[in-house]
Amino acid sequence: MSDPALIAPDCTAPAPVGMHAVFAERLIAWQRRHGRHDLPWQNTRDPYRIWLSEIMLQQTQVATVIPYYARFLSRFPDVAALAAANVDDVMALWAGLGYYTRARNLHRCAQVVVAQHGGEFPASPDALATLPGIGRSTAAAIASFAFGARATILDGNVKRVLARIFGIDGFPGDKRVETAMWALAETLMPGADASSAQVSAYTQGLMDLGATLCVRGKPDCAHCPFAAECVANLTGRQRELPVARPKKTIPTRRTWMLILRDGPAVLLERRPPTGIWGGLWSLPEAADEAALAVRAGELGAANTLARLAPLTHTFTHFKLDIEPRVADYDMRAPQGARELRDEESAWVPLDELDAYGVPAPVRKLLEGLKGLKGSLL
How far apart are CA 267 and CA 340, in angstroms? Predict the structure, then answer.
């Protein structure tokens, strides 16, 4: 590998001549000896299983994904089964994994594959990237692992690896920096004569290096195959690279939620298909206390709204303060919400929540409700 001093710490720095061949060869050798080889979605060329894992692994750690992956395969063993499923069943299995747009796109993608591709995933990265929820890097990973395609990936782990080894300054989410990283990544690929097994090992090696050694907090530079040439290691800039996202003040939003009880059941409402928790089942809510009281009356609640401890949930771009209120359904009401049971609302026993896609903080509220005994009237 060329002298790292020749690599300018700038996002436009090209890979030194000949670097790509040495980089790929060394990475493949390291992956075969030290990489991960026993993950549930490895050792297969089944594009359905590979696609499912890649979507789940977007912005989510392996340890979290593994049990969800197993449950999905048990319920939906192939793309046809997933395409034919009710979206509520898909969202219920996904609940707790976060970034729920992925689940909606997962279902839509399965339907497109069945309807437009005869149930077979296309083999080329370009064709894969046209499917719902599959971006350029994910498409390349699927094509590499399932079909042995020679395609470049650039996920968060890879950006971190490249930023440190080549001393790339600038926030990787910035378009200029990301474009330069794509160009660099292209030059590092195995040669055109590489076998499909070598290409897959290279792709997996990039992921493994970023996930096991070149981690965010304390990278294990002593065991890295590129430690002797890595700009960040040589200059002590591991904590500085990659450059962090420019800090912004995270706004806080506030909402009031109603837990309306009728015996062992609570009233849930389906959220709009877009926005936070899109398509999931949640609690009736309002923008303030007075508005929630009005909603509660319309839904047939008793006059009393009891306060529960507030809950804060942090999203990527904002914090949500939840003010929960709980009330019993008023059986004396001549006609109220008790008859509600349609596609947008349902009375759900607390022990049947697993059948519904419920956001994690709402589930936490309802789990706490199990210990609240007796009527509130």
Answer: 9
Closest residue by Cα to residue 311 from 291, 325, 293, 290: 325
Contacts of 200 (CB under 8 A, 6+ apart): 144, 145, 148
Q: What is the pLDDT of residues 73-92, one digit of tens each?
A: 999 999 999 999 999 999 99
The question of whether 229 is a catalytic residue gets the answer no
How far is Cα 233 from Cα 74, in angstroms, rounded to an integer? 44
Angle of helix 136-147 versus helix 196-208 axis, rounded to 10: 130
242-273 as b/e, with b when 16 or more CB fall inside 10 Å?
Answer: bbeeeeeeeeeeeebbbbbbbeebbbbebbee
pLDDT in tens, 324-350: 999 998 866 554 455 555 678 999 999
Per-residue pLDDT for 265 more than 80?
A: yes
Residue carrying the six token digits 């926005």: 275
Query: What's at 326, amino acid-wise?
Result: V
E-strand stretches of the chain: 252-262, 265-270, 281-282, 285-286, 306-307, 311-314, 319-328, 345-349
Q: What are phi and psi of 72, to 5 degrees?
A: -65, -45
Model pTM score: 0.81
Per-residue pLDDT, 122:
97
The crossing angle, in degrees rounded to 10, of helices 87-94 and 101-117 is 140
Whether the pLDDT of residue 313 is over 80: the answer is yes
- Helix, strand, coil share of the chain (percent; to 5): 45, 10, 45
Q: How confident is the model at residue 23 (pLDDT cuts 50, 70, 90)?
A: very high
Please tell me whether residue 159 adopts helix, strand or coil conformation. Answer: helix
Query: CA 80: distance to chain centroid?
Result: 23
Q: How many CB atoms within 10 Å of residue 317?
A: 8
Give the single-character DSSP code of 326: E
- Residue 47 neighbours by CB under 8 Å, 6+ apart: 120, 121, 142, 146, 147
Q: What is the pLDDT of residue 1?
A: 41
Q: Please give the pLDDT value at position 288.
A: 95
What is the spatial distance between Cα 163 and Cα 171, in angstroms, rounded to a whole number? 9
Q: 335 burial class (0-12, 13-18, 19+ CB within 10 angstroms)?
A: exposed
d(CA 342, CA 224): 56
